[in-house]
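Predict structure. Chain length: 233.
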Amino acid sequence: MGYYGFGYGYDPVYLLLVVVSLVLGLATQGYIKKTYAKWSAVPASIPGTGAQVARRMLDQGGASGIRIDRIGGELTDNFNPADGCLHLSGDNFGGASVASVAVACHEAGHAVQAAKGFSMYRLRTSLVPVVSFASNAWTVVLMLGVLMNAMGLVQVAIVLFAATVVFALVTLPVEIDASRRAVEYLGSCGSGLDQRGAKEVLTAAALTYVAAALVSLLQLVYLLGRYGDRDRR
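Prediction complete.
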């Protein structure tokens, strides 16, 4: 989609949605980088690097079979259940700052979720294949539907996009729970400073997911309003 839609002329509502999306994206990314940089300069009281602290959290949380590996890039940290590996960016793998151990333990939290069968994590994982298809297909289906004046295809496109919105909403409790596990672990094994810094870093990271979910919801409302109104005319 573009500012002009597909054959519908200039659309100020969609332009506003684009602006809101950009502002939210830039604001949340700026905030997380600032917060991460702040706590990257503060050594953690809990002994060890991010990888070492995450290893202990995994072992204690019943996920001792998970490997930990280094991955390129900055803040590219993730847990991949497909290969059973916790991938940590260089700074968080080898760093010993509050920010490093917070991010490493957050990702370890996802592995613990998988090991313990956390329901929302299982739901999110089950949605991945559907959402992978839907996120790539919905714009193509929508374009075809509008160009061919086939409202059936438009409705299919909206359903596909709605699946990505559901995924974004399901992601929120999964991320919040992983952060909770990380903060609790650092609070029990480290100091109050570790816990406070972890809360700040992981709250900043969570805001990116909140912003993404909000933008997705707004876009779904836009699609329903724009193409739903056209179907009634």
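Summary: The first strand starts at residue 67 and ends at 71.
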